[in-house]
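note to self — DONT lose this again. spent like an hour looking for the file last time. sequence + predicted structure for the chain T wanted, 330 res
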Amino acid sequence: MDELNAPEVSTHSSVISITLEEKQKIINEIIKDIRKDVREEVTKELTDEIRKDIWKWARKWSVWILGIVGLLSFLFAVNITLPRVYEKAEKHIEDIIKSKFAEANIQNTLQAVAAQQAKTIILQVVEPEAQKAKKYLDKMRLDFQEEYAELAKQIRKLKERDELSQLADDAIANANRSSYEKLLERMQDKNIEKDIANAVTAYLLQVKLFYIGTSRFAGDRSSLQITIKGLTQNVKINNISTEHFAFTLLNHSDWFMRGLAARFLADRKEKGIPEVLLKAAQNEQDLSVLKEILNSFGVITGYQYQDVFDYKRAANWWRDQKVNIESDLK
């Protein structure tokens, strides 16, 4: 309490009397001290309560908002919710002060204290704690974004490997040349990641090794069922002309018949057949037939392929070696 000025007193019949003005002055000094004490007590108590409420709110909403609404919705929710928190906090502070100091003789004094302290706590306690909570949630958001980016990267790679696997399966099961060439195109991508490049290489080898080790046209056939002018009959292979096999290879709609024609042409070492085989190789979309075409080309010309499906290399080789080899053909 601030030091009081000594009041003037008068002595009558040995009794000390104080004027009404002096009494009012003493009461005002007491009220002044009550304001100071109340302000300190209320501020400390409410500061602790507000701090606990803020962090309890932050942790509860960090889980709910990040898990359900998502990061963008969270930022929106914070902007909407914080003003409500401030409003609720101010009313809460006023209610506590009123309930604790509601006596009639100090009611008016404490109303002014409550109003001032509510604003003070909002500025000094609520907002800093709310900002701390927001930083805490922002850190969670950043950590989540990093984890999400890594997860998205892994999912993308898994999806890409699945697509590569499907291309390889299609090239083997359905002899689809288009799927095989898509694998080749992927391998030629300059920006391809190392692990994806390794996967493409593995799938290409898988496809090639399958066709190197197998043939869908294997077997000893001395005759072939063919249709000539609407009449179907069994004809010995030796009695079927080279021109018929060449025409079948280039024009037949049935991949199996084209493959048989390519296989039988290996025994026809005649001029013009290497060109027929290379022309067929350029357009053939069935990998099993393409393999038979290049195999027959090698048997006739002596070409040794390094890649079971690389007809371009075979065509370049033939352009350089044609003059030397064609003289040995019929």
